[in-house]
Design brief:
The protein is mostly helical. 54% of the residues lie in helices and 4% in strands. It has a three-stranded antiparallel sheet with strand order 1-2-3. Helix 2 packs across helix 4.
Length: 305
């Protein structure tokens, strides 16, 4: 007896979740999205849903961990995948369930926090634009969260690395490797406001002429200064989580994943793939990458509505 197509299986699974399991539309959609992430991952490795082994699942979860996806979100994704394979076994599509002994990540207070979109918005709303450095901090927050940058990448970002027409920035990551990062219209607008109101009127210290974000004396911002900016906004917003600038990077990756973005696109955006030079990297389909990120990032969706 021929096996049903994967599209048929996914439709049956969605019906099973909503009708037999009685899940809400949002919860069922979330479970189906988790399965979609796994199937894309498997497809990139030349495998179908019925071919996936426990080892494949562990590699998939390892990728989620490397991307900075929170343990809580990982646990939810595992729950969705286990539900899917239980369904496949029940439908007779597979003989053995590879998720039976799949461990869930440990969720503890010491693990990285992830901010919700409403918490991100609350922090942004606490930025006092009437203060001299208010617009700078607004642009910093939008770039740090909206592009998923490391703090070291943010403080070294240069004016010459911003390509406004193409809506890209070039970023120098670990090992001095370059990558291209899509940047939203919202982030570009905030950068332009900062440049018009503050940056263009500053006299940069020697060696900082091309640096985008400067302190009041025209020098480079330090990692510690970015930490204090984020920490203060967190306190003003009444958020009691343990938050650092890297929390915004974790949140960025988690929000993209939960919004349906492709794992490979997120990896490229965060610079987790080995990229020797920009010339090599541009062979990647940049249009697809940019559309993937901007279509699934929640703040970009808000800006376009």
């Amino acid at each position: 007896m021929p096996q049903p197509s994967i599209d048929t299986i996914k439709k049956r699974y969605d019906t099973y979740l909503r009708i037999e399991k009685g899940l809400s539309l949002n919860t069922a959609a979330s479970y189906c999205r988790d399965v979609e992430h796994l199937l894309r991952f498997a497809g990139d490795n030349g495998k179908s849903a019925s071919d996936i082994t426990r080892h494949d699942l562990e590699l998939f979860l390892g990728t989620l961990h490397d991307l900075g996806i929170s343990p809580r979100s990982q646990a939810r994704i595992i729950s969705g995948i286990k539900s899917f394979y239980k369904f496949l076994k029940m439908e007779g599509v597979i003989d053995d369930n590879p998720t039976l002994l799949l461990p869930a990540p440990h969720i503890g207070r010491h693990l990285p926090e992830v901010l919700t979109l409403s918490e991100i918005d609350s922090m942004i709303a606490c930025i006092d634009l009437s203060k001299p450095q208010g617009q700078r901090n607004r642009a910093i927050f939008e770039v740090l969260y909206g592009c998923g940058l490391r703090v070291s990448e943010l403080v070294e970002l240069q004016l010459s690395q911003i390509f406004e027409q193409e809506e890209y920035i070039t970023v120098i990551g670990k090992g001095d490797k370059q990558r291209l990062v899509p940047i939203s219209q919202e982030a570009l607008e905030q950068i332009n406001l900062y440049r018009e109101n503050t940056r263009n009127n500053q006299v940069a210290q020697r060696g900082c002429e091309d640096i985008l974000f400067l302190n009041r004396r025209g020098g480079r911002l330090t990692r510690v200064m970015i930490f204090y900016i984020v920490k203060e906004l967190c306190q003003l917003a009444g958020i009691r989580k343990t938050v650092s600038p890297h929390t915004l990077r974790h949140s960025f990756a988690t929000h993209l994943l939960e919004g349906g973005a492709n794992l490979r696109a997120i990896q490229q955006m965060l610079g987790h793939e080995s990229i020797a030079t920009t010339e090599i990297y541009v062979h990647i389909d940049r249009t697809t990458l940019r559309q993937e990120i901007l279509a699934h990032h929640p703040r970009n969706k808000m800006h376009n509505t």
